[in-house]
Amino acid sequence: MGILNLTPDSFSDGGKFNKKNTGISHARNLFKSGADIIDVGGESTRPGSKPISKKEEWDRIKETLKDVNKKIPLSLDTRKSEIMNKGIQLGVKLINDVSGLSYDSKTVGVLKKNKTPFVIQHSQGTPEKMQKNPKYKNELLDIYDFFERKIKFLISMGIKHNNIMIDPGIGFGKNLKHNMNLIRSVSIFHTLGFPILLGLSRKRFIRDLSGKNDSKERLGGTVASSMYAIMQGVQVLRIHDVNELRQSIKVFKELIKN
């Protein structure tokens, strides 16, 4: 999954692709580089970010969605039911809600009505405050329980099992220890019986481990953690540097062949 942030303030590439047509050409480049689907977002949910209005979010993404959707499969990164619905009408194939469908109570209804696949992501707290001293009894078991409860609720609401994907939400209300334990033991989530998406690309844990604070220079850590995730059977990686990851995967898979 290639990342296309049409925001002025995303943590790693804010302001880079939100000018006219730059988003469209970047989406094409990501697809050409080997992304299977492009995740388009118009609202930053990085730590410390503040929410924006539905109108502002839609204005940032609508032209790119209209243009790109005809040729490239798109995922929509949003927490708002109205934005989801508009995106789905334009042909969006997947909804990626970082709030785990808890930000807007109407999201479940929109997804059920349209039979649209979606990602449930775990996050603790809101983006504004989620990194202020996050706490768990046991991050692995707490997040596993969260998914179990959420999935039970969604299926009771009539959502189809094969429309659900899960994401433990690396960096969303987690400190370095939480993130490392989640990545290290991510295979536990396979027992829930759903595909796993993991967003590791350029995340803060790479800076914490390497001691270098430049969010654009975290390719090495992104590749290392992504290869580890593949070894744990993670099915979907959400990535900024698609070409480099594709290349890494090809070489890695060749090396581990029997």
Protein model, in words:
The protein is α/β, with parallel strands linked by helices and 258 residues long. The chain has 9 helices and 8 strands. It has a 6-stranded parallel sheet, with helices on one face. Strands 7-8 form a two-stranded parallel sheet.
Descriptive labels:
258 residues, alpha/beta, 6-stranded parallel beta sheet, two-stranded parallel sheet, 8 strands
Helix proportion range: 40-55%
SS-derived structural category: alpha/beta
- What amount of the residues lies in strands? 5-15%
Widest sheet: strand ordering: 1-2-3-4-5-6
- Rg calc: 17 Å
The tally of beta strands, per DSSP, is 8
* Chain-averaged pLDDT: 91
Report on the biggest sheet. 6 strands, parallel
Low-confidence stretches: 10-14
- Terminus-to-terminus distance: 28 Å
Total helices: the number is 9
Quick summary:
This protein is α/β, with parallel strands linked by helices and 258 residues long. The protein contains 9 helices and 8 strands. The strands form 2 sheets. A 6-stranded parallel beta sheet has the order 1-2-3-4-5-6, covered by helices on one side. Strands 7-8 form a two-stranded parallel ribbon.
